[in-house]
Amino acid sequence: MIDRHLHYVPRLGRNPSRFRLAGIPVITVMLGSSVTALPVIAQSPVMPPFGLLFLLSWRLLRPELWRAWIGLPLGLFDDMMSGQPIGSAMFLWTIMLIGVDAVEHRMIWRSYRQDWLIAGFAIIVCMAGGLFFARITGGGDVRLLLVAPQMFWTILLFPFVVRQCARIDRWRVMA
Amino acid sequence: MARPPSRRPGHNRKAQYSLFASYVVAVTGAAIGLLLIVVAIFDPTGFAGIRAVTAELTRPVSVGLKNMVSGVSSIDEVLAAYWRAGSQNVALRRQVEADRNRIIEAKAVAQENARLKKLLKLVDEDASQLLTARLISSSSSSARRFARLNAGRWQGVQPGMPVRATEGLIGRVHSTTPNTSDVLLLTDSGSIVPVRRANDNVPAIATGAGDGSLEIRSLSAGRNPFKPGDLLVTSGIGGIYQPNIPVAVVVRVQGEIAWGFPLANPSRVDAVVVERAFEQVVTRPDPGAPAAADGAEPGNVATP
């Protein structure tokens, strides 16, 4: 659901189109998931999950933008792009969004650091869950240590992605 | 900063229902996702057909980008070569001197081999190669190691076919879409390749470790027979991989396990060859013949 206030941007008689308001966040997350289409043949899990990073950034930047079910279609698309079994990101992203909702209800004070902390936990949960699903669906004996570096730099990358999201968001709501 | 505005809808009944419904949808969807994974436990390629949509859509993009960057991808290798270039140069010169004699010997042996084969009227028909294609992208963010091949069902690629490069084995085809296919790389933790030591046929099993290395376990009891520098080739057991495809070189020995690195690096090779499964090549086309299963055996032993 789009924030009602966003329709009244003070740019003299012009509103951003509905497509721009609702579509741009979805497109950025899908583009983030599509990073795996780059012609990189990785020998170990090195690429940060940009789809997850963009989803978290939009969710924490604009809590009113999406309901928790948005994790289903976006997660399905991410599963189709990444090599994870279908259903993995669908489940994990939705559960993660419900979790963020629950945490947000209980928090009294929120600032940038708390956002990073929430994102850090969400990233760890999603990537450890993804590893577990890869393991039970024929991945053999994958160790958690294998994705630890990827987890580490995904968490470090979060502030950068939030900044880019904020930049896109500023353009998005301006007519 | 105070907390962001609450998402609780207050007394508005309609908004309350809408919020509740959104959670019901989310939880139901998550349960469906979990169900899909349970299905994938028993049938890993079952719903992978959905992937055909995105695979086909992103194929042109990946192919275009691959054509652009194929020259740039080895830039780290070029830079690394400058490190200790002098001593490396001397060592490589000596290596070349030593190898030259061996190449001459090998050429002589090859000629002799060809001559002897002619004498025996042995026709070495090689019907195993299916096609040559390029690896265009990979599952770089997942813990699994899949690479996407620029050829699929319509080109005749079928799941289970081995994929190799000139340097060595790359992996095997996991699932196919009309124009692309997913290759399970050698280094995936779900990939198991029966191998043997090149010079004395010690059998072993090479399992991927997920991080670019291979875990090699000897099949013979007793102490670990491998030492760093051992060359491993496929043994042909199991009926998927042709025998004598180079697989890996052992770099470290640790108790029962030897660690190796694949000889073919999928990110460096330019093109890969899809082969027919070994069993299809050696067995006769008529099904049900008891001799068919035995036919695979001489192939394994005959060429050491």
TrEMBL record, chain A:
The record lists the membrane-crossing segments as 21-42, 86-104, 116-136, 142-162
A cellular component term (GO) from this record?
plasma membrane
Primary site of residence: membrane
Determine if Zinc-finger is one of this entry's keywords.
no
Q: Name one GO biological process term.
A: regulation of cell shape
Keyword Transmembrane included in the entry's annotation: yes
According to its UniProt record, where is this protein located?
A: Cell membrane
Q: Which domain of life is it from?
A: Bacteria
Family membership noted in the UniProt record: Belongs to the MreD family.
Q: What is this protein called?
A: Rod shape-determining protein MreD
Q: Which organism is it from?
A: Sphingobium xenophagum
